[in-house]
């Protein structure tokens, strides 16, 4: 939603390409970090015996990934 809000289009006639690249990079990095983008498997990982123990830690890591992607996008890296 943040990427769409910052780089998305204002109407259906506009091109979505500006938001596409950062959205793809975000999803790929999230997937690399957690192995999935689906809630149920993430929840199971978090609450596994050696897991993170709290979904808030997933949110924190996700926010860091987003920050990195947005920073790179602002710097012209994507």
Q: Can you describe this structure?
A:
- The structure is a single chain.
- With 78 residues, the protein is mainly alpha-helical.
- It is 67% helix and 0% strand.
- The chain has four helices and no strands.
- The chain has helices at 2-7, 17-34, 39-46, 55-74.
- Helix 2 runs antiparallel to helix 4 (55-74).
- The two termini are 18 Å apart.
- The mean pLDDT is 91.
Helix content estimate: 55-70%
The rounded Rg comes to 15 Å
Number of helices: 4
Question: In this structure, how is the largest beta sheet organized?
Answer: none
Brief overview:
This protein has 78 residues and is mainly α. Helix content is 67%, strand content 0%.
Topology:
Elements: H1 2-7, H2 17-34, H3 39-46, H4 55-74
Descriptive keywords:
67% helix; elongated; mainly alpha; 78 residues
């Amino acid at each position: 939603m943040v990427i769409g809000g910052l780089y998305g289009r204002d109407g259906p006639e506009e091109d979505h390409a500006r938001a596409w690249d950062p959205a793809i990079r975000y999803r790929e990095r999230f997937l690399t970090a957690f192995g999935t983008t689906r809630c149920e498997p993430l929840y199971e990982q978090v609450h596994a015996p050696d897991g993170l123990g709290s979904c808030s830690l997933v949110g924190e890591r996700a926010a860091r990934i987003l920050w990195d992607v947005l920073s790179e996008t602002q710097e012209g890296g994507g």
